[in-house]
Amino acid sequence: MTKITIRRVDQTDLKTLQALSRRTFVETFGSVNTSQDMATYLQRAFAQEQLLQELLTPGSEFYFALIEDEIVGYLKLNQAGAQTEDVAPNALEIQRLYVCQKAQHMGVGRTLMDFALQRAQQCHHKAVWLGVWNQNRKAQAFYQQYGFVQVGQHEFILGTDHQIDNIVLKELSK
Predict the structure, then answer these.
(1) In 3-state terms, what secondary structure has residue 52?
(2) CA 151, CA 129: separation in Å to the nearest integer?
(3) For 50-103, how does the pLDDT look when each residue is reduced to its tens digit (9 = 90+)?
(4) Distance (Å, whole) CA 169 – CA 130
(5) How far is Cα 23 from Cα 26, in angstroms, rounded to an integer?
(6) Helix (H) or strand (E) holding 115
(7) Exposed (0-12), middle (13-18) or buried (19+): which is 126, by Cβ within 10 Å?
(8) Terminal Cα-to-Cα distance of the chain (whole angstroms)
(9) Calculated CA dihedral for residues 170, 152, 82, 48, nearest 10 degrees
(10) How far from chain centre, in Å, is Cα 146?
(11) What 8-state DSSP symbol labels residue 75?
């Protein structure tokens, strides 16, 4: 079995975080969006200044997943005022959970999700939520395996394309 470790991201990891964010987003969505919309989104969402601001935001946490010494995925969690929306009281938001294409089906996504759920329990949250593109059936199935259920929708703008994300929520047991 592959040993996957998780480590917290800090400011010294900014360039690595930027490269990984761009790479995994393109691997996940590049084939189903226009190159112009992708370029516009990547430039805005994953600019160093934007990622640094997110790293410094109280309540936001980034984590890398590693196999041996290679970073193969990452996770962004938001608590309290750092959340992008007010979906549920005392909840943790998983804003990003991405795995490099070459490391998929190796347990990295599950390790990141398990870590996020453990982190939510450590922080005494009652629920975990996230937004998942309504066209991303693979991710939707993954979240359903964990017991997430749809509780709403919101708009996600990728370049000039207005897309719909399903908001899914998992209640945590005590």
Answers:
(1) helix
(2) 9
(3) 999 999 999 999 999 999 999 999 999 999 999 998 899 999 999 999 999 999
(4) 7
(5) 5
(6) helix 108-122
(7) middle
(8) 30
(9) 110
(10) 15
(11) E
Distance CA 88, CA 134 (A): 20
Taking 3-state DSSP, the helix, strand and coil percentages for the chain, each rounded to the nearest 5, stand at 40, 35, 25
- Relative to beta strand 70-79, strand 91-99 is antiparallel
pLDDT digits (tens, 9 = 90+) for 109-167: 999 999 999 999 999 999 999 999 999 999 999 999 999 999 999 999 999 999 999 99
The two three-digit tokens of residue 142, written as one number = 């993954």
Per-residue confidence (pLDDT) for residue 78, from 0 to 100:
97
Give catalytic residue positions.
143
Q: Provide the 3-class DSSP secondary structure of residue 66.
A: strand
The burial class, CB within 10 Å (0-12 / 13-18 / 19+), for 172 is middle
- Buried b or exposed e, range 8-28, using 16+ CB within 10 angstroms: ebeeebbeebbebbbbbbbeb
| Residue in this structure with the two tokens 């962004």, named with its chain if needed | 76
Residue 145: its H or E element: helix 137-145
